[in-house]
Amino acid sequence: MACLFALAGCLSPQTREGDWEQVVEQAWELTHLDGRRPITAGNETVEPLTLDLSDDGRAAGFAGVNRFFGSYESTPQGELRFAALGSTRMFRADPPGLMDQEQNYLATLGEIDSYRLQGGKLVLISAGKKRLKFVPAVSETEADPATPE
Prior knowledge:
about 150 residues; alpha+beta; eight-stranded antiparallel β-sheet; 4 helices; about 20% helix; globular
């Protein structure tokens, strides 16, 4: 019996009760897309790629050039699937590769099947592979707090 529980633990996405509450209503900033840092990392001329998940099943964010929106479904067992993703339709040629990265990011979101939290970071997984890694985004007020009155 103990072997069955150990095996089930290996097959689960390793989520814990309460993980989802830490995921929703938190803005997330992408740090890795398929193991690589995004073009936007450290580039002050481009906004970071983001993901926001609301309690009511809506997903939104910034994909590098365009804002995106859609829906998602999740389970307490760590399953996560995005659906009906759409985006604005702007173009930007600089920096090179930004549009390709955006298409890859949105396509990857569509392939996600589970999530987990690791050390405060959000990891989105597809077919057992870690595809997207996020850190909590810093709000403008946290980054540049107002001066005391």
